[in-house]
Design a protein that fits this description.
CATH superfamily of the largest domain: Vaccinia Virus protein VP39
CATH class of the largest domain: Alpha Beta
Number of helices: 12
Distance between the termini: 80 Å
CATH topology of the largest domain: Rossmann fold
Number of strands: 7
Number of domains: 2
Structural class: alpha/beta
Radius of gyration: 22 Å
Strand order of the largest sheet: 3-2-1-4-5-7-6
Shape: globular
Strand content: 5-15%
């Protein structure tokens, strides 16, 4: 009999002639104590058999890691008052909102989560799921981030604002929402920044003649990458100028997601004028005063940084 070749299949894969062990499925150590298995199945993080595939494991790791940053903020706020309230922008299927409720709000007994999403079908599915799981203190709004700031369904103040992979200017809208709602903290994972890249492409020849820095975005790929970097730097400066202490870190390892920058802003009330000055200088250096100044409280809206964030 010829010796069998070693299988090249990944551990747990179905190999020809070999059946998976019956007990192979979800690795329980990857779940948090008391976590709802039914919820994870409804969110399709787990299969009906309780299995966790590689894609689901990656999603769960991102949400857990984000939860580790948000939980201390919620704990601090719940001690201070009757809240906390949290608005999750670009909620999608509300992975983050549901897991936050399941792991924290459910046992807390008070506080409320608002999921804001533009796709009506996802909003309706989330409403049905929250009702089925008796997650009474969850609301889902079929609105854009920009429109939600003045929506009657939301309270005048929101304690925590989250935006996980809110595309392009939606992250800026989430920041504006947080400033208007006097948020005590914002937790943001920005996505693509197409608007900034488009602004950098305008008048590129003039910029190349004006400053050697324009070489940083002469090639289209560099334009996109630099646009993303500059946008997030401007956002951080804007938050600091508005009275927030800002921390920038990785959400998870780069092997799990390329959209990986995590911005955590905690309100201190100490508005940094130096941050506003650097913000203005950066906009000028890149020739963005007219195109993007108002978005970051500059130009015609110079006083916005101080007025909007007056808590």
């Amino acid at each position: 009999m010829k010796p069998q070749k070693p299988s090249s299949a990944a551990p747990g894969e179905h190999v020809r002639g070999v059946r998976k062990p019956k007990n192979e499925g979800i690795e329980l150590q990857e779940l948090r104590p008391g976590q709802s298995i039914e919820l994870l199945k409804e969110l399709h993080i787990l299969t009906r058999e309780g299995r966790l595939n590689q894609d689901s494991r990656r999603k769960l790791k991102q949400v857990y890691h984000l939860f580790n940053f948000i939980e201390p903020l919620l704990t601090e706020l719940s001690v201070q008052g009757s809240g906390p309230t949290l608005a999750d922008h670009g909620a999608g299927k509300s992975y983050l909102g549901f897991i936050l409720y399941d792991l924290y709000f459910k046992a807390l007994g008070h506080g409320h989560i608002y999921g804001v999403e533009t796709r009506a079908e996802l909003v309706e599915k989330s409403r049905v799921l929250a009702q089925r799981l008796h997650f009474e203190r969850m609301s889902f709004l079929n609105l854009s981030v920009a429109d939600s700031a003045d929506a009657r369904e939301l309270p005048a103040q929101i304690d925590v604002v989250t935006a996980l992979h809110a595309c392009d200017t939606a992250t800026d809208d989430a920041i504006a929402f947080g400033l208007q709602k006097k948020a005590r903290a914002m937790v943001l994972v920005p996505c693509c920044q197409a608007e900034m890249a488009a602004c950098l492409r305008q008048g590129k020849a003039l910029q190349l003649a004006r400053t050697p820095l324009a070489e940083l975005w002469r090639h289209p790929l560099h334009t996109r990458e630099l646009g993303s970097q500059v946008t997030n730097v401007l956002r951080c400066l804007y938050l600091e100028a508005s009275g927030y202490q800002v921390t920038v870190t990785e959400l998870v390892g780069w092997e799990h997601s390329m959209k990986n920058e995590l911005i955590i802003a905690r309100y201190t009330g100490q508005k940094k004028r130096s941050a506003a000055d650097r913000l203005r200088a950066l906009l000028g250096e890149f020739g963005l005063e007219h195109a993007m100044g108002a978005r970051f409280g500059m130009g015609a809206a110079t006083d916005q940084v101080e007025n909007v964030a007056a808590h």
